[in-house]
Amino acid sequence: MNIGLKVLRFLGPTFLFFGLFVVLPPLLISFLSGNTNNIFLYIFIGSTMYSLLIMMTLRKRKLNYTPKDGFLITFVCWVLISTVASAPFYFAGMPASDSFFEAVSGLTTTGSTSIRDLSQLSDDILIYRQLLQWAGGVGLVIVVIAVIPAISGGMKVLQAETSGFADKSFSPRLRETARSLLLFYLGITFLCCVSFYLAGMSFFDAAAHSLSTVSIGGFSIYNENFGYFDSPLIEVIAIFFMLVSATNFGLHFLAIIKGTLNFHLKNDEIKVFLVLLFFVVMFSVLYLLVFKNFELYDALRVGAFQSISIVTTTGFTNGPLSEMGVSAPLLIVFIAFIGACSGSVGGGMKVWRIILLFKVGFNNLTKLMHPNAVSTTKLNGEKISSAQIESVFSFLALYIFCFIIFLLIIVFQNNDFYSAFSATAAAINNLGPGLGLYENNFSDLSSVGKYTLSLAMIIGRLEIFGVLILFIPSYWRS
Questions:
Q1: pLDDT tens track for 173-195
Q2: Which residues on neighbouring strands pair with residue 382, listed in sequence order?
Q3: Is the pTM of this model over 0.70?
């Protein structure tokens, strides 16, 4: 009973945030257009009334949260919010599986879509899709950086998620941390919107695409995605804000507060991330020049934008991925498994885990050659404990296990391996576009496949442990 009250209480502010930031704007747009969308009205009223009820009944009730509560509450919130978020799509005429897939893809900032033709959607539904991604991005940051630390042992979790910079860049108080994050997120969203507008987008287009850019979401309001604008300047702006959102928010806080980029320059993760991006871009450009006969300008433009977008797990495109051939897109999707940096809104396994894997591997090779040598694994100059290393290897093992299970399910839905592999990778890495059959959208995927990939998106967004722990019998024992 107590855990039930904790879930209900936690859902109060969550639904309030959802109603005010995600549902209200499209409701106002539909109202101003003279054709009020009743489903938005009903969700807004329901969310507001529920939040008020919780405030009046449970807000002052003292409830002690444990790590066990945190995992369950987080997962339940994602599933319930995704279910409610699917309603506008369902009442717009989409099947239940497509609606849920679209809602989960938005909230997890994956960017995969089951919609064939976006031009058939009204403006209120289009901006709603974008807001789902924006709310999903900031929501995840608040849960990981603010809520879960409060539930699971304070600043230790926060420090682990931000590579040791949390104690310097964020306030140890929960509310101040959440407010700081939200203000920063609002700030870069505003700057991105203004930049897009000054670069030639209409205000509606700039607002819509800034929401999905800073959240590393990948949704667009056009079938051609960023190719619709055919603007190198707009693409450069998008690249800049994708990189900002794919790197550690703690580092950005420090840069703003201290007025220096020294913390960025000293951070192992961001250096490896940028070097990796450089080599992926160079490979893509050279591949387009040599094997696809692109002109240098076009190769640079397509190679840079597509590579950075996918490696950061954003998923924007400025043209069909198929025009890059087979090898280049497949390599980029493989690299996207690494994902973005810790403390960011990006998906994937995170760069810091890959760094530790390689460091441990090289240390073991050194021990084979010099058995008596004493070696330690360090990240950003700090020694990494054996417990953290074990956690990384456990994460990798579970990640591979989950990927294989999801892949087999998708393959058994009458999909070729190439398409199934890319679809599963896009889901669990919160990447967005697939390859092969699912390069443009996932409308042809079976209902079972859509629900399967929806679960993969949630598991990927919550970084596996937070979901799989719920399936361990000992978790449910007192």
A1: 555 666 677 778 889 999 999 99
A2: 379
A3: yes
